[in-house]
Amino acid sequence: MVSKLLLSQLRTLPKPTHHRLINPNFIFPLKTPSPIHSRPYSDSPQPQPPSPPPPTNGNIPNKTKNIYSSLNKSELAKFSAISDTWWDAEGPFKPLHAMNPTRLAFIRSTLCRHFGKDPYYAKPFEGLKFVDVGCGGGILSEPLARMGATVTGIDAVEKNIKIARLHADLDPVTSPIEYLCTTAEKLVEEQRKFDAVLALEVIEHVADPAEFCKSLSALTVPSGATVISTINRSMRAYATAIVVAEYLLHWLPKGTHQWSSFLTPEELALILQRASISVQEMAGFVYDPLTEKWYISDDLSVNFIAYSTITNE
Ligand SMILES: C[S@@+](CC[C@H](N)C(=O)[O-])C[C@H]1O[C@@H](n2cnc3c(N)ncnc32)[C@H](O)[C@@H]1O
Ligand SMILES: [Mg+2]
């Protein structure tokens, strides 16, 4: 009976496919270092890299301006459909709520070290400007604001930004958060700069991770830091983050993640390096089903996070 139920759940499971970075149709300049935005950012005409490959998988083409767009329409539709559940700790974002204390511990420790702040102080990030790229309903932006940061939260889904705004306005400590429905590349065009740029669990949902990292780099001040988390493209991640989390335990809606969109830690480090970002520290997040808690670990095989700095070339 149980095995029949499991089989019926697994029948619709997609098989792992090639990652887009190794997909022959995906043009990734492996040999020649890609031209990177100049720093400081200038909107005067710059030598332009060759046009990106035509968007696939629902990516939104930007024909009018010929600028890169990180938007992947089908990925955004998934988040739009569940936007009203952001603050339901038992809903589809349960894993992010559960992971939040652990990832905030990593952020507090690495960024306090980076900015020479006291991690034991209640508001160590006072005086620093942070941008939370792909902020969703604000479950990371809010604790960052509580730790004293001046936070801008951006998301491409309008409904997410509305939820984030409503929730932040419930508390005077979080109400100063600036929430914008926009993209990292648009903020780059506006020449916005931040001390720390965070994009947690977003890169696996964007149209082109390498270009996305260049935008994150361009948003970071030269002495700043970036923090990126995602899921490793390992068989273990396929088994746990997709088969178990989506198909067996229903923590996330089926189809939330495409295994082929995951990056290995090495691939992430490589595309960050090409965006003038140098990884300083990586850590894994491991779930313990007995305590139902997430822990920081050296095991990068499923969920992992990277703290990086800007390289001054
Ligand atoms: C898994 S959620 C992560 C939310 C938040 N960073 C966190 O960890 O709590 C991914 C978010 O990224 C947003 N997103 C996806 N692609 C985006 C893009 N190209 N630009 C901005 N936001 C994007 C989605 O709308 C969604 O809210
Ligand atoms: Mg994700």
Tell me what you see in this structure.
The chain is α/β, with parallel strands linked by helices. It has a single domain, classed as Rossmann fold. The protein has an eight-stranded mixed sheet. The longest helix is centred in the middle third of the chain and has 22 residues. It starts with a helix and ends with a strand. The structure holds S-adenosylmethionine (SAM) and magnesium ion. The site of magnesium ion has 4 residues, from loops.
What low-confidence regions span 5 or more consecutive residues with pLDDT below 50? 18-57
Which CATH first-tier class would you pick? Answer: Alpha Beta
What ligands are attached or bound here? S-adenosylmethionine, magnesium ion
State the end-to-end distance: 62 Å
Strand content: 15-25%
What is the CATH fold-level name? Rossmann fold
> Which strand order does the major sheet show?
3-2-1-4-5-8-6-7
CATH architectural arrangement: 3-Layer(aba) Sandwich
Mean pLDDT, all residues: 85
Portion of residues within helices: 25-40%
The total domain count is 1
- How is the quaternary structure best described? single chain
Subunit structure: Component of a multi-subunit COQ enzyme complex.
Pfam families: Methyltransf_23
Binding site for S-adenosyl-L-methionine: 103, 134, 155, 200
Binding site for Mg(2+): 201, 204-205
